[in-house]
UniProtKB/TrEMBL annotation:
<dbReference type="GO" id="GO:0046872">
    <property type="term" value="F:metal ion binding"/>
</dbReference>
<feature type="binding site">
    <location>
        <position position="41"/>
    </location>
    <ligand>
        <name>Fe cation 1</name>
    </ligand>
</feature>
<keyword id="KW-0472">Membrane</keyword>
<comment type="function">
    <text>Catalyzes the hydroxylation of 2-polyprenyl-3-methyl-6-methoxy-1,4-benzoquinol (DMQH2) during ubiquinone biosynthesis. Has also a structural role in the COQ enzyme complex, stabilizing other COQ polypeptides.</text>
</comment>
<keyword id="KW-0479">Metal-binding</keyword>
<keyword id="KW-0560">Oxidoreductase</keyword>
<dbReference type="GO" id="GO:0008682">
    <property type="term" value="F:3-demethoxyubiquinol 3-hydroxylase activity"/>
</dbReference>
<comment type="subunit">
    <text>Component of a multi-subunit COQ enzyme complex, composed of at least COQ3, COQ4, COQ5, COQ6, COQ7 and COQ9.</text>
</comment>
<dbReference type="GO" id="GO:0160224">
    <property type="term" value="F:3-demethoxyubiquinone 3-hydroxylase (NADH) activity"/>
</dbReference>
<feature type="binding site">
    <location>
        <position position="173"/>
    </location>
    <ligand>
        <name>Fe cation 2</name>
    </ligand>
</feature>
<feature type="binding site">
    <location>
        <position position="75"/>
    </location>
    <ligand>
        <name>Fe cation 1</name>
    </ligand>
</feature>
<feature type="binding site">
    <location>
        <position position="124"/>
    </location>
    <ligand>
        <name>Fe cation 2</name>
    </ligand>
</feature>
<dbReference type="GO" id="GO:0006744">
    <property type="term" value="P:ubiquinone biosynthetic process"/>
</dbReference>
<keyword id="KW-0496">Mitochondrion</keyword>
<dbReference type="InterPro" id="IPR009078">
    <property type="entry name" value="Ferritin-like_SF"/>
</dbReference>
<dbReference type="GO" id="GO:0031314">
    <property type="term" value="C:extrinsic component of mitochondrial inner membrane"/>
</dbReference>
<comment type="similarity">
    <text>Belongs to the COQ7 family.</text>
</comment>
Length: 212
């Protein structure tokens, strides 16, 4: 797909824009953000689904996981909608993300509650900083879009809405991180190996889903 096609997509009739066309680089970046975040939230949904199933016998931790899972379902649905609106194709590795995420959630939940929480801590640490990085780029590189009605150069309603969405989700991911620590993630054994391995897996998945 060439650059013009990508730029056109973000100014297509699928979304009512109130601004002049984005540059090819801006349009390509937004497409990348939506693709990777949709894949990430799909993964998060399935990690919690796997943990919930594996820990369904644990009456104390079940509602804790359910609450976080429900928030992930909202995140996933929101990015699904953005993906359709902006006609962004999903990551071609989606089937692998699904199996991998559910497997990771189920395996850590099957180990014990502490391992599940260490998994949550690792995942949300990486995703929290991933969202912060996106917010930095969206704040720094999208201030030069011309609003059609006022002629002013701003970051456009579309980018502002996306930033607000990402900010809200980032805050909820960081709440999940706190919840994991409060629920004894640090008592998982082997804590360091488990969290560092999962962080590595998530970073690799983010890098890949941004590209394919
Ligand atoms: Fe999420
Ligand atoms: Fe989360």
């Amino acid at each position: 797909m060439n650059r013009v096609t990508i730029a056109k997509r973000f100014t297509s009739t699928a979304v009512k824009t109130t601004h002049a066309p984005l540059s090819a680089a801006q349009a390509a970046y937004l497409e990348r953000v939506i693709r990777v975040d949709q894949a990430g939230e799909l993964g998060a949904d399935l990690i919690y689904a796997g943990q919930y199933l594996a820990l369904s016998h644990n009456k104390k931790v079940k509602p804790v996981i359910k609450h976080m899972w429900e928030q992930e379902v909202v995140h996933r649905t929101t990015f699904n909608e953005l993906q359709v609106q902006h006609r962004v194709r999903p990551s071609i590795l989606t089937p692998i993300w699904k199996v991998g995420a559910f497997g990771l959630g189920f395996a850590t939940g099957f180990m014990n509650k502490e391992a599940a929480m260490a998994c949550t801590e690792a995942v949300e640490t990486v995703i929290g900083s991933h969202y912060n990085q996106q917010l930095r780029v969206l704040s720094n590189n999208f201030g030069d879009i011309k609003e059609l009605d006022t002629g002013k150069y701003t970051d456009s309603k579309e980018v502002t809405n996306l930033k607000n969405t990402i900010m809200k989700f980032r805050d909820e991911e960081l709440e999940h991180l706190d919840t994991a620590i409060k629920n004894d993630s640090h008592n998982a054994r082997p804590y360091w190996l488990l969290t560092e391995t999962i962080k590595g897996i998530v970073k690799g998945a983010v890098f890949t889903a941004e590209r394919i």
